Each structure stands twice: as structure tokens, then as C-alpha cells.
Amino acid sequence: MKLLSTKTKLARQRIDELIARRSTTYERALPTAKRIVDSVRKGGDRALRRYAAQLDGYSQQTPLRISEAEIQAAWQAASSELKKALATAEKNIRSFAQRQRPKEWDFAPAPGVKTGQRIRPLGAVGCYVPSGRYPLPSTLLMTVIPAQVAGVDRIVVVSPRPAPETLAAAAMLGVTEMYRLGGAQAIAALAYGTETVARVDKIVGPGNAFVTAAKKLVAFDCAIDMLAGPTEIVVTSESGEAAEIAADLVAQAEHDPDALAILVTTQTELARAVIAEVKQRVRSNKIAREAIAPNGVAIVAQSTEEAQTITNALAPEHLTVDSAEDLAWITNAGSVFVGRYSAQPLGDYVSGPNHTLPTSGLARVRGGLSVMDFLKIVTVQEYSVEGLQRLGPAAIALAEAEGLLGHAEAIRVRSTLRRNNA
Q1: Residue 106 DSSP SS3
Q2: Distance (Å, rounded) from C-alpha 50 to C-alpha 37?
Q3: Of 134, 203, 145, which Cα lies nearest the Cα of 172?
Q4: Banded model confidence at residue 27, pLDDT cuts 50, 70, 90
Q5: Does pTM surpass 0.70?
Q6: Residue 113 and residue 391: Cα distance in Å, rounded?
Q7: Hey, where are the domains in the chain?
Q8: Among all residues, which ones are annotated catalytic?
């Protein structure tokens, strides 16, 4: 883990590089992903089975769809400890999503005019649940529960080699449509449909470079949540405990060898202590060690204002700060963890806010996955004769100013009919 002081030109250049970062890992996968997506789009189940055999080791006889009996059997075989943990996470994630759900409302901007909004769920969504280095039942919870709260009628889960824990989570949530599919082929099946898998309206969930590349390729034909890059963590602290900060940095770094782990502080001694702690902790964590070596940085700013500016410019996926007072200056972050006891992994599992978060600086423009990703806001407008008389002339004037005479006539004809019928 490297120490960078904003006093030096070289350090400032490195910080600028971090701020301007974008994940390019998926770009290398684009050509292969395109071949797979095109193949599944044209070949349907036959192509899916070929890739399932080549990439995931399944036989041609292995059913693509996981039976409800197999899903329920995983729940029955799960330990009571796992069941209790899944239930705790489910309760908090669901409660948080329910509070996020927008309201329907009506408003009268003028007499005789009523406007408003209605909330409607998407018809079908696909939830991608990775199962590469680690089983991720938590990702199933984080993608399926907001869709359920939104009222999505058809929720499809795909996972290349789902672990028993993931199947148990699916059983607990009542998931009935789940497939042994992963990679670009799973994204293609969800986006375009095959004989076995009906297409969906939107695909959500993180994945590897091939999954991300495939999501980019299908984005004009099927909505997606976001292009997820490697995991990121920033800790901005003046008074934190070195061991605790280091533990969080290592925890997020173990997700991916390309993960980004950054400390921002004005305290040089704290930075050095954190670097020493991280060095000790990565000795027994190979993936975290591989990530920290090129992407672990302790930035020493010259003032708290500079530290805050750097933090917002980084727009991190995960951000830890010292106290609730820090929330006032934060503008760009996927999810914020406040205080020494708010270990970042708590947010990965049980806090309630979604752990599918924007990376690569995308937190400048959006937050994490939420119930809003599964909803449509349908706006409504209703005019009476009085409303037409009040607002019609202004609308006609604007239409004529734009040269859209048909627009003006569509309003004027109603006024004319009203006068003729009077």
C-alpha cells in the first residue's frame, strides 16, 4: 500500500488518475462476449447448452432450469444458523426497500387541471447472481427483494453454478424460476429469450468482465441497472483506529484482484499505521494482497477541506467517515458508513441498503440498486373545460413559436368545439 502526499506533484498526478478512473476490464471481454451473445440470440437453447458444457462443465442432459424441488431441498438442508441469518438480512433489506418506494399523488397546478403520477412495476426482471470465487446468496437477496417490493410479476434468477446457500436464499424468498446459467450467455438469454428462457424487461446484478460486457452489448434491447466494475472502498478519517480501517480496506479488497482500496486523511501517522496494519493482514489473504499491491493507496491531504474535496472527486462505491457530521459535505458516494462500529461488510449483508452499488466514479450520477430500478413512474394529466380555457392559450402560443402548427390546432379545435356547443 503506497503513501501519497498531496504536497508532491507525482502524488497529485496519481490522485488525478484515480479520480479519472474508469473500469476497462470488460472492454477486453467485449469481442468474446459479442460472439456469445450473437450465438445465443440466433441459436437459443442449443447455444446455451453448448456454453453450459464448455464454460460451466454441465452435461447436455443437465436441465437448464432448476426445479422447485431442488430449490426447496436446499432450504431443508440449510443449517438453522444460515436460515436465521438469511431471515435477518431479508427483513432489513425488505424494510429498507419498502421505505424507498415512491408514492402516487395528484396535484392541481390551476383550476380545472389535474396532474399526478402513478407507480407501475416492470413486468419481468432478470437477477444475475455470481458464483465464481465465492457463493453469493447475499446478492440474490439484494436483487430479488427490491423487485418483490416493487411488485414485479416475474422475477428470474440466473447463476452459473449456484451454491446450496444461494438456492436456500431463493427458497426463502419464494423464487420459482431459476436457471443454471452464467456469463455472457445468461445475459443474452435474458435479453433476447430462448426456447426455455423467456426474455425480461431489465437485467440487474453484478458479474465478471464477460457479464458486464454482455450487459453493455444488450443495453439498447433490454434495460440494465449499471455496468459494474471492480469493488472500491474509500475511508476518509482523521481519528479512526488503524486496525479497524485496515480491516475494512482488506475486506473489500478480497472481492477482486482489481479492487481499489484508499485511505484519505490529513494525519501522516495514521496513514503509516494503516499501511503497516494492511501489510500484516494481506499476508493471509491472497486476493486482497493482489489488489492492494497496485491499487492500495493512503493519501495524506494538507487540510480537511482538501481531504473532503478528494473524497467527493473519487466518488467511491463504499465510503467510511468518522461521524454523522461528515454527511453534510458528502455529495458523491454509493453507500456511506458512519463511525468506527459501522464495518463495511455489515452493509454487504444485513443493514438493509443495497450492496449493488455504482463503481468507477458512477456515484457522481446515481446511487445503488433500489426499488426504483424496478418501477416506472407514469405521469397523468386531466383537463376540464375551465382548465383548457386557462392554459390552452399559453400552450398555443408556445406551439406556434416552435412552428408546430399541428400542436396548436390540436388545442384550438377543442376550444372551437366548446364554443360551437355552447
Answers
A1: strand
A2: 13
A3: 145
A4: confident
A5: yes
A6: 9
A7: 2-23+229-352, 27-228+372-376, 384-421
A8: 317-318
Q: Is 400 annotated as a binding residue?
A: no
Query: What's the grid cell of residue 271?
Result: 496513514
Reported as a single tens digit per residue, the pLDDT across 368-420 is 999 999 999 999 999 999 999 999 999 999 999 999 999 999 999 987 756 66
Bridge partners of 263, per DSSP, are 235, 298
Strands 223-224 and 202-204: parallel
Residue type for position 103: K
- Which CATH number among 3.20.20.10, 1.25.40.420, 3.40.50.1980, 3.90.25.10 corresponds to the domain 27-228+372-376? 3.40.50.1980
Which residue bears the cell 467511491?
316
Same CATH fold, 27-228+372-376 and 2-23+229-352? yes
Within 8 A by CB and 6+ apart from 323, the residues are 338, 339
Residue 383 to residue 413: CA distance in whole angstroms: 15
Flag whether 308 is marked binding. Answer: no
The CA distance from 156 to 180, in Å, is: 11
Give φ, ψ of 347 to 5 degrees. -70, -25
Is the domain defined by 2-23+229-352 classed in CATH 3.30.420.40?
A: no
355 is in an annotated binding site: no
CA distance 207 to 13: 31
Residue 2 grid coordinates: 503506497
Question: Is 312 a known ligand-binding residue?
Answer: no
- Lookup result for grid cell 476497462: 24
318 is known to lie in a ligand binding site: yes
CA-based nearest residue to 2, from 321, 293, 324, 373: 293
Q: Where are the beta strands (DSSP E) in 122-175?
A: 124-128, 154-159
Condensed to tens digits (0 to 9), the pLDDT of residues 154-188 reads: 999 999 999 999 999 999 999 999 999 999 999 99
Residue-level pLDDT at 422 = 54
306 close to 291: Cβ distance less than 8 angstroms: no
Measured between alpha carbons, how far is 190 from 214 in angstroms, rounded to an integer? 11
Please report the pLDDT score of residue 273 as a whole number: 98
Continuous segment of H or E residues that includes residue 380: strand 375-383
Q: Are 231 and 256 in contact (CB under 8 A)?
A: yes
